[in-house]
Amino acid sequence: MGKGKRFKTFLSEIPQNIFAGFVVSLIALPLGFGLALASGAPPISGVIAAIVGGTVVAVLGGSNVTITGPGNGLVVVVLAAITTLGGGDMHQGYLYTLAAVVISGIIMVILSFLRMGALGDYFPSSAIQGMLAAIGIGIFAKQIHVMLGNLNAKGSIIDLLLQMPSGIIDFIKTDNVSIFYAGLVGIISLLIMIFYSKIRNKYFQLIPAPMWIVVLSIGMYYYYDLFSPAIYPIHKSLLIELPNDVLSNFAFPDFSKIYQFEFINAVIAITLIASIESLLSIKAVDKLDTLKRRSNVNKDIRALGLATVISGFLGGLNVVTVIARSSVNVNNKGSNRSANFFHALFLVAFILLFATELRKIPLPALAAILVYTGYKLASPENIVKVFKIGKEQLIIFLVTLLTTIATNLITGILAGICITFIIHVFINRNFMFFITNLLKPNVLMFKEDDKYYVSVKNFSSFLNFTKLKSKLDQIPETEEAIIDFSLCDFIDHSVMENLNNYAETFKRKGGYFEVIGLDGYKTESKHPFALRKNIPIEGDENNNLTKRQKSLQNICNDLKWTYNALPKKPLTEIPHFGYFKTRKINKVSNILSNENCSLFDVEFSEGELIAKQIIKGTMMYIDIEKYTPEFTLDKEGIFEYIYHFTGFKDIHIENHIDFSKRFYLSGKNSNQIKDFFTDELILFFESNKYYHIEGNNKGLLIIGRERLAGIKEIKTLADFGVRLKKIICS
After folding, report:
1. Can you give the pLDDT at residue 540?
2. Fewest Cβ atoms nearer than 10 Å: which of 63, 179, 398, 576?
């Protein structure tokens, strides 16, 4: 698409992006206030982050439909930083934290230039889930007390959770009218958040749930002010505080603690969580994009870093990519970065035009929004999902979760990484397996027959996934890619999940992405993301079939053939072919067969001791049912040309000069071979795909590449073999 056409498209989509930006701003306003208050910062700081993020990232970002602003993940980190750095003085701690926010933004810009957009791939998926759940519990533990009108609850996350029963009882028994009404507003607000999605009315759902809470809260104030003889029951201390002149009351960061350990620790924590939250959100939002575009992650991280620096200098929080607001943007037809910009403009308008009304919002109403958010992050459903993937993933999840709650986010995520590595070592019972192979290149990519082929060796886990990712990112999503793990002994959950993301992207873009080589791998569960260990499986061959094996079963159903994933009897005909005279067959699996044809995967070895190599391939055997001469047919090439000069004879078929030039045909009895190669058979070979074909008196062996074949290749090979047999036997 040319620049002129792109600009016209951009202009034509402005109205729908203005509307999407407006709807998003209705959510961003109360969330900005709420997230800032939950972080121990002034409410306006959250809105500043949303405004700066929406403006800067809309102009300089590398994504298309993402929305930026303050994030859920940073609440616990920023609150800890303000509390620790301030030493009890929350305002001074806020100024020190602004300095940490600025430096965090600078680090993100540097990381983007170092192309560290892949940072999130170094963390195990279950550890990240555990960290997010811990953040959710932290938000819930603090905000449940605020929701009930108690602003004085103090202590660690565990302390706050233990105080919940007494907090609920105190609310029920309170004789303080202000706290009772504030808590009542909080409870009603929480009910709105819970039941909003259940009310399927297009007019009701035109306004998002958080904005309904804002509207009803302000409406309650004006009801008492204009219509009720009673005075407004909620005390001023339980309402939002906004500066009288927003534009002239920006806070400025204090850099005086820049060399202290607590400050450096805060910077690391803020940068780490901001980066992870943004990377996860960018990846997730790309799946939602109806135009199937892919974000430039490093460019987006750079824009987020710059926006964070500006936000920090103006008194705002970190700027991150946020999934919930981005989802709303897509659902309301947001199509480009202008929606993010318009959402920022609407926020400016709200603050300048309705500051007086916004001061009427009770803090418990905003806390209810965050209580619901915290619950969603730490929902029991998430634990069930992790458990379904595998018991070991639940251990990683819980260790990360509990360590984070008991200590801090950095310690928690490090504990998650360590326990993941320990579990991987325990499953493989080999520490040196990971150490010796960690720095080795384990990914080979090449292109053949207009498709990309990627082979992975040794192991693939969160420790070295970036090696595989760098290759996969080079493949256009409109092309065909086959990822082969047949030479890999171990694949972890994080890799399996990321491969599924690639498969979805390729499917959306019209490409083809297939993972092969996982047949015969042991898994703890039937979940597609379960980790894989290369252990021979005994018993029912139909248990835990891989996606590829299920596809092979479907092919057999279509062809009316039989399928045997793990045959108990060997294929006795195969070792008699010359190809296997110097190769030892270790295992034959995934046999697709009818009366005369057998298509199968075979694992064999070449050489011995240090020269030993394990190779896996897909082949086909055809029982011709009549005498077949011994011969070898290959595509003519440089090696076949050399064979000719070293004594091997290329048999030439009379009246078929082109065939003799294109194919290398050899065998002991040339007369029998010439009789076997009829005009019809030669025409068949000339007009079809090249395969290595061997004949002996028992039948034919057809070999493609010395690797496992993908589903499309297997279909092609099966069709080739059936038609070949028909011609020979006719």
Report:
1. 46
2. 576
